[in-house]
Amino acid sequence: MIDRNLFEALAPKLAGRPVLIRWQAPYLTNFVGYAMNQNGKAIIDIDPNLIDEETYRVFLHECAHIKFHFALLSGQNEAHKAPKSETLNYYGQVLHDQNPIETEADKQVEKWKEYGEENAWKFFYQGKGIDLCLKALCYYPFPIPGPWDRWHS
Ligand SMILES: [Zn+2]
Questions:
Q1: How does pLDDT run across 12-27, given as a tens digit for each residue?
Q2: What percentage of residues in the chain have a pLDDT greater than 90?
Q3: Whole-model pTM?
Q4: Ligand 1 center–CA 67 separation, angstroms
Q5: C-alpha of residue 113 to centroid of ligand 1, in Å
Q6: C-alpha of residue 129 to centroid of ligand 1, in Å
Q7: Is the dihedral angle over the CA atoms 104, 106, 107, 113 positive or is it negative?
């Protein structure tokens, strides 16, 4: 399992504001992640039983909603007032694929994933797999020096 501290440290950097991550199933049935604006406070619920790849993808997706759609999001008790911020099911299928805010969020997810994958190897000595993508993403969108740059300086 990925270190949850990594997600919690990275969330405000990607989302652009403080974010509370709650490792609990979203209160809406069938949802694996949910981003909320609870009276101006950003909260992301993530199903704690997902596999790592799915946790990573859902995390990025919800951070993108906080980044782009915070004003549109609603709180836990007023979900009916605003567009649903999460529409993904367990198979990663977008259920409301006509919703432009989902498309915008997923485009950002692709950018973050690409950056994480391209730069993960620079942290090879600090772990493996998605952990390294998360560490790399702490530097988004700036170029990360490779290990040899440290040795030269
Ligand atoms: Zn969404």
A1: 999 999 999 999 999 8
A2: 60
A3: 0.84
A4: 12
A5: 16
A6: 24
A7: positive
